[in-house]
Amino acid sequence: MKKETMAEINEYMQNRQLQLGMDFGLTRMETLLTCLDNPHHHMKFIHIAGTNGKGSTLNYLKEILQAEGIRTGAFTSPYLESVNEQLAVNQSIISDREFISLFNQVHKAVKVMDRSGNGPTHFEILTAMAFLYFKQKEADIVLLETGLGGRLDSTNVVTPVLSIITSISLEHTDILGHSIDAIAREKAGIIKRGVPVISGAAEQAIQDKAAAENAKLYQLNKDFFIENLSSEGSMQKFSYRSGTYKLDEIELSMLGKHQAENASLAVTAILLINERQEYSIHEESIRHGLRHAVWGARLELVSKQQPFILLDGAHNPAGISALIETLQHSFPGKTYRFIFAALKDKNYQEMISTLDQKAHSIIFTEFPHERAAAAELLYECSKTENIRVTKDWQKAIDDSLGNATDNEVLIITGSLYFLSLVRPYLNKKY
After folding, report:
1. What is the CATH number of the domain that holds 354?
2. E-state strands within 132-224
């Protein structure tokens, strides 16, 4: 039956996710795209995989390309407030009307596949919709973020002009493998024959895959470098160097050394695009794009006046470590108060252990989601002296805001699903 509203589509997609779960492989995706006349063919893609930093790197690239006047499509996941955010061209996310129309186009093929017992997952449907959308909108280039892993991710049906792997750390070990090397092999699955790859990670598996595919590898801290990193208030600066090319005093609105690393991946990508794709993206577009790029709930300063309020979807141990490093670098001498919620299938024990080392206080809370960890479960993992449970996350925030002092930073962190609720709640206040 044809879907008429976004609510109907959201319910359909949620039910499909519950029924089919995450079932990886490319055969269904290829079948679905064949039914849709392969909209992804003859398009230019930059394909981005990695544990953390995919969205930020994509957003840096998007801002730079837009500043140059290049029509840029972006497929990202997960979304913060609305599924429409995942499909965008330039600054415009897909409208409800367009989303409903695209869904109904794809759903005709989905019903045929369902009858054969080989129906696509909800993410495969969304990926196919993205390809159709970018073709219809005549995007000059599409920035394509993997959903999970790389090798068997539904996005891995494209042959990009460039591949990027941001970082590697332990995540989804039940699916991707129980070691950094195993996870790196999965992420390296996006590397295609003869297609250059940029990497913020130094794992041997990435080097081996690049060599096997005759794909030129450009590696952070080996082929390009970050220098003179400094921060002042809500901005930071660094210099980029690759061979004889140097770009000094680059300004970033996103904080943290890891964001400078993500930005350096984007700069390297732009240099390669200029060299290989006959573009001529100017230095001013690079500077403008990096300076103006922001990414919701990734070290996002909701309040830039004291007391500072920071949102960060640090949903794994590596993300929490980067958050702590950024706090110490950007807000030295401040007291750190955390509100934390997580999914129960994440390594929240290690995340909390890292928070314990620097937190003045932690409020553990929870949110409505079938995979959310109970606040009491999180509380039991902490060794910080000043901790408590407030199951109502809105009350946890309101109480913290009421008690905050100018010498404190209030950090709301953990699951991005949690932050998707928190962000609009706070935006009404600030």
Report:
1. 3.90.190.20
2. 141-145, 162-165, 197-199, 217-219
Q: How many domains does the chain divide into? A: 2
List, in sequence order, the alpha helices (H) in 36-187.
54-67, 96-115, 122-136, 173-176, 180-187
| Own/partner pairs, 397-403, CB within 8 angstroms, 24+ separation | 397/339, 397/422, 397/425, 397/426, 399/363, 400/337, 400/339, 400/363, 401/309, 401/429
What token pair was written down for 168? 């590697």
Residue labelled with tokens 């080996």:
222
Cβ–Cβ under 8 Å, residues 209 and 186: no
- Round to whole Å and give the CA distance between 289 and 260: 13
Number of Cβ atoms within 10 Å of the Cβ of 374: 14
- The answer to whether residue 173 is domain-embedded is yes
Helical residues (DSSP H) of 160-316, grouped into ranges: 173-176, 180-187, 204-212, 257-276, 283-292
Which residues on neighbouring strands pair with residue 49, listed in sequence order?
165
CA-closest candidate to residue 353, choices 389, 380, 326: 380
Structure tokens at 418: 């949690």
* Domain housing 17: 6-292
Residues 6+ apart with CB under 8 A from 247: 239, 240, 241, 267, 283, 286, 287
pLDDT tens, the chain, 430 aa long: 788 899 999 999 989 988 887 778 899 999 999 999 999 999 999 999 999 899 999 999 999 999 999 999 999 988 888 999 999 999 999 999 999 999 999 999 999 999 999 999 999 999 999 999 999 999 999 999 999 889 999 999 999 999 999 999 876 655 666 589 999 999 999 999 999 999 999 999 999 999 999 999 999 999 999 999 998 777 899 999 999 999 999 999 999 999 999 999 999 999 999 998 889 999 999 999 999 999 888 889 888 777 889 999 998 999 999 999 999 988 999 999 999 999 998 899 999 999 999 999 999 999 998 889 999 999 999 999 999 999 999 999 999 998 888 899 999 999 999 999 999 999 888 7
Residue closest to 37 by CA, chosen among 119, 131, 163, 102: 131
Is there a domain that residue 1 lies in?
A: no
